[in-house]
Amino acid sequence: MIISLLCALVAGPAPETPLVVASYSYPAFDRSVALTPLAGLVAEAAGRPARIVLFDTPDALSEAACAGQVDVAMTNLGAYVTMRDCAGIDAVAVLDTPPTVLDRYRGVLLAGSGTSVTALSGLPAHMETLRYSEVLPGSTSGALVQAALLRTLGVTPDQFAARLHAGTHDRALEDLLSGRADIAALAENPWRKLQETEPARAAALRLLWRSEPLPPGPVICRHTDGVPCAAIRDALLAHEASGVAQALAEGWTETEGAERFRAYEEAVYEPFRAP
């Protein structure tokens, strides 16, 4: 016992466990780079190290946060909706995204040229013969809002003949254009871009539905010993955090152009709840 105590004294105090600053991966963006300034801010506010962890999907991020494995995270709307009621989770700030960008952050449901579905009302009767492509589990504009829409029609995505996960919004659109899928769920931006750059290809598809604008996910903090959520919130809302905001904004299409944070407003997010 004495030898062990002497060894501990010689070695010095054990290093502090780093705080986990997290999000989820997406092929189009290097989110480790996007999160680096945020991790630096968190480390400074907490007076201890921070490390970045990227999960495979928004759903995996939400599960880890609810399990106490995440201290601070940049979410999307889908991840936030499923973690918001977990113990200790608090939204502390939101990127102040330009209104024109916010207006473009919508989900769409598209039908391919080879399908017999010409209107949303006709979809339930044909689902068992149709292949469905969505982005990935937990994608807000490329899975969740479309699933919520389908529930209003009395059906779910599992009732399609096949359910594909494309990985990105562009690939979900390509699934439809190439004939790998008959119906696709994705964000509006790739659909807009196709209409502008390749109108002939776009004309072969049918828009079945377009959502209302969707708010971006907030930065969350998990209240626990050693995680100063109030100090992190205040640091994010300070003008000096503009570099953190700009770096994060470059990692998400729906926050493009944001240069600062604004306070979280519960009224904005109240309509969005996990089913």
Automatic annotation (TrEMBL):
Q: Please name the SUPFAM superfamilies in this protein's record.
A: Periplasmic binding protein-like II
Q: Which domain of life is it from?
A: Bacteria
- Supply the source organism for this entry: Hyphomonas polymorpha PS728
Q: What is this protein called?
A: Phosphonate ABC transporter, periplasmic phosphonate-binding protein
